[in-house]
Each structure stands twice: as C-alpha cells, then as structure tokens.
TrEMBL record:
Organism: Caldicellulosiruptor bescii (Anaerocellum thermophilum)
UniProt-listed Gene3D superfamilies: HAD superfamily/HAD-like
Protein name: HAD superfamily (Subfamily IIIA) phosphatase, TIGR01668
NCBIfam families named in the record: HAD-SF-IIIA, YqeG_hyp_ppase
Residue spans crossing the bilayer: none
SUPFAM superfamilies attached to this UniProt entry: HAD-like
InterPro entries tied to this protein: HAD-like_sf (IPR036412), HAD-SF_hydro_IIIA (IPR006549), HAD_sf (IPR023214), PGPP1/Gep4 (IPR010021)
One Pfam family hit: Hydrolase
Length: 169
C-alpha cells in the first residue's frame, strides 16, 4: 500500500526542482504548498531565491496555485505578496483543496499535467496521490513547525526510509 503513495520525486528544496524535467514530463501546472515549502512555518517573508524560482517557473509557462491548510489571513497575505492565487483552509489530505486549485488552474484539463510540491507526506503527498497527481516532496525549510506536524514527522521519517530501502533493492 505504501508504494501507492510514493512521491514521484524527492528534493532537498523547491530550488532543486528542475523545471525543464517537469516540462519534459508534460507538466504545465504547479500546486504548491506554502508552509515550510516556500515560506518558513510561522513567518511571512518569502526568500528572494524562492521568489526568483517562482517567477522563472511562470516565465517558462507554468501556471501556479498555492494551497495551504493555514487560515485565510496568512494565506491571503502571501498570495498578495507573490501575486499567485491561493487556496486557504484546504483540509489536506482531503481532495477538495487540490480540486479547487486544479479548477482554478486549468478548468478541467487532465491531472497528468499537474504536479504538487509540498513538504509533508501525510498532507501533500497522500492528498495529491489520491487524485493521481505527480508529487514532489521537498524537505521542510525549518524544523520549527506546528506541534501535530512534529508528531507526523516521526512516522514520515520511517516511511521515507522504507522508500529509500525499496529503491536500493
């Protein structure tokens, strides 16, 4: 069962994602998590190199939507700073937030053209895989996190070790 939820790619950070590779895979749409993927948890400042990566992706033709389980005020502030549409209170890993983002991005085009980028296995990966989306798991930007996320990370580490072992065999 775990193989069903294996991320398609694992990268150190969003900055390590090769956009050319995604284009070659036919991906045109990016659904990107906010907290600890593009902005450190509890902070509002988006690092310049992240902004540059997002701008580069848009110039290359990617359409982007941010999706977060966080509250409206935080998400709307980041949406406004970046000029990228965002879904707040997404309730990941439920499908609804991903479906709202998909509808906003491509109004019904096929999911195989969409990649989800996030830092959490139990929200981003599982939610996206339930919709058969391409998933890129990145390492969290900082260790400071919501207390429930810290608990989830214990189990997440075990799952990622399983995937690493499976790839070596």
């Amino acid at each position: 069962m775990l193989k069903k939820f294996k991320p398609d790619m694992i990268c150190k950070s969003i900055l390590d994602i090769d956009l050319e590779t995604l284009i070659k895979k036919g991906i045109n749409y990016l659904i990107i998590d906010i907290d600890n993927t593009i902005v450190a948890w509890g902070e509002f400042e988006v690092r310049d190199e992240i902004i540059e990566w997002l701008e580069k992706a848009q110039k290359m033709g990617f359409k982007i939507c941010l999706v977060s389980n966080n509250q409206k005020d935080r998400v709307k502030k980041i949406e406004s700073m970046l000029g990228i549409p965002a879904i707040y209170n997404a309730k990941k890993p439920l499908k609804s937030g991903f479906l709202k983002a998909s509808q906003l991005l491509h109004q019904g085009k096929k999911n195989h053209q969409t990649a989800v980028i996030g830092d959490q296995f139990f929200t981003d990966v599982i939610g996206a895989k339930r919709l058969k989306l391409f998933v890129i798991l990145v390492r969290p930007m900082k260790e400071k996190e919501f207390f429930v996320t810290r608990i989830n990370r214990i189990f997440e580490k075990k799952i990622l070790k399983y995937y690493e072992k499976d790839e070596r065999e």
